[in-house]
Amino acid sequence: MIVLHLVLVLSQMKTANGTLPPAGQWLFDRFCQDMDDNLREMGVGDFAVPKRMQKVGEAFYGRAKVYEGALADDNPVALPAAVARNVFGAAEPPSARGVSLPICRTWRRVFRNWTPMR
Q1: Which of 8, 36, 44, 118 has its CA 20 to 30 A from that of 73?
Q2: CB 4, CB 103: distance < 8 Å
Q3: Could you report the per-residue pLDDT of 68-95, keeping only the tens digit for each?
Q4: How many CA within 13 A on the CB side of residue 87?
């Protein structure tokens, strides 16, 4: 879920400014550092952390592409389906649909009413 929200916030920051502002880069860097710290806390060895972080990066950018594409799509089912698939790991189970639809409605409302801070 953190990747979902991070992608959506960074996407809005990029849309509002034309490029990712320093605050967005800081947020992404903090996310990466937090993932690194969590891997180490879970006992992943120093030599394995970079390989795991590469997988985290691949997952992040893959999901970012899917979520941004779904937000740009006029199909109201695209984003809930992407959330169900990427967050809950299923095509669209009833529990995922129950959670993903409110998330998607909220984010669409946020995107529609976004006013960037300058």
Answers
A1: 118
A2: yes
A3: 888 887 777 777 788 878 877 766 644 5
A4: 25
Q: How far is the C-alpha of 93 from the C-alpha of 8, rounded, in Å? A: 23
Q: Tokens for 82?
A: 């992407």
The DSSP result for the chain, as a single string, is -HHHHHHHHHHHHHHHHSS--HHHHHHHHHHHHHHHHHHHHTT--TTTHHHHHHHHHHHHHHHHHHHHHHHHSS-TTHHHHHHHHHHHSSS--HHHHHHHHHHHHHHHHHHHT-----
Give the CA radius of gyration of the chain. 16
Kindly report the pTM of this predicted structure: 0.75
Q: Which two tokens stand for residue 20?
A: 């990712």
- Between 94-112 and 49-72, two packed helices, what is the crossing angle to 10 degrees? 70
